[in-house]
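Aim 2, interim progress: modelling of the zinc ion-bound target.
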Amino acid sequence: MTFDLIITNGTVVTADATYQADIAIREGKIAALLPPRSAFPAGPSLDADGCYVLPGAIDGHVHLHMHTGAGYTADDWCTGTMAAALGGVTALVDFVETNPDESLTDALAKRLDETRDAVIDFGLHMTIQPDEHPSDGVPRRVSATRLAQIPAAYDAGCATFKLYMAYPGFQVQDGDLFRALCAVRTVSGLACIHAENGDVIEALRQAACSPNAASGATAIHHARTRPSINEYEAVTRAVMCAEVSGARALIFHIGCEHAARVVADAKLRGLSNVFGETCPHYLVLGEDMLERPDGRLWICAPPLRPQADQDVMWGMLSSRVLDIVSTDHCPFTRAQKDRGKDDFRRTPGGVPGIETRLGLLHEFGVRRGRLSLNDWARVCCTRPAELHGFGNKGHIAVGYDADLVVFDPSLCKTLSPGSLHSAIDWSAYDGVECHGWPRDVVSRGNVIVHAQQFSGTRGQGRFIKRSF
Ligand SMILES: [Zn+2]
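Predicted structure of the complex, ligand included:
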């Protein structure tokens, strides 16, 4: 048998095992796992001696070319997916947002038009947001018509549905959240929930920025107006809706101990349909970043939390209370962030991270003894594939897509805007040294990163229709 590519001499790291093997690839799929140094016909090979070979990392939460009040997020589908690839990512999931007057599938078609330059495979979450116009013209309810479109969106490949419990324009009322979860349950989809109590946050923000407020409008007040008890309350409500509806629900970007404990409790009670996601910034960066003069750069929601929460979050990752780590990559330039110089409410929320997840979790997780190599592969690669419905990805086994990362633990990378590839002029992790970094990346059998250089092709990424 001949192969298109063989990755030789590497240490294979999966969610449940670490072993030596050569990986043979044919027609974009893993064709064989061979004992190390097997004899095979001469052909293209990649020497992974001294390196880990992982399933390609999967990022279930990014915002490329997303329209906001501060303009589009800074990465388009080309720069964003290239940066992802250079960080070891072989598939990601972005979002479709919807206007009240278009159907979910029409919104998907429009969004797909924007993705043509993707260099890695991708899926799209379908956002269910208010679409019904009451008398004042501001949509606040999710219509029955909208919910009836969920099966068509699922059939079109959007098997996961985003719901917001905060943000004017996106926030759904409790009844609508529950009705949406029931509809998601009917198609066996997955609901992804942004869980914060939006009504209370809006009141706190107004009070903090009122002319006679003593506090002022600097970046730290972003965190103070989104206390962790607020996140806790919303996660509790989301879990209740998941439990009563029976829908599978992933709580997005859990950032604090309070909120993580709600998911821990749900799992302890035997709920098998509740899942938790966290992000590298909640594991590595503390709330004190917001106290810096340029603290607005780190404004994101939920906000960064005190250092004490981080140790708990690491523990919950290794104990599987939290299922996956995604980036919530939402890049804005300094100029965009500077809109909120005098009022934190005007700063667009989000931090970049599409390229740094695998490296940061290796540095702060594996190297510091908080995660095993297998935990690392599980939370970055395998569980994201399973939870988000990428049936052919996330595993190193015959028949799966040949999406692989060769991670070299002897590389040293200092993070900075110059050493990373997102289209922004700052880094959330400036100066952090990562010992170990993705060296080569293979996407469906094609080497798209070679010796840390991008070698793929614009437009090579495919929209993956996901299902469960
Ligand atoms: Zn997000």
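The chain has a mean pLDDT of 96. The domain at 56-387 is CATH 3.20.20.140 (TIM Barrel).
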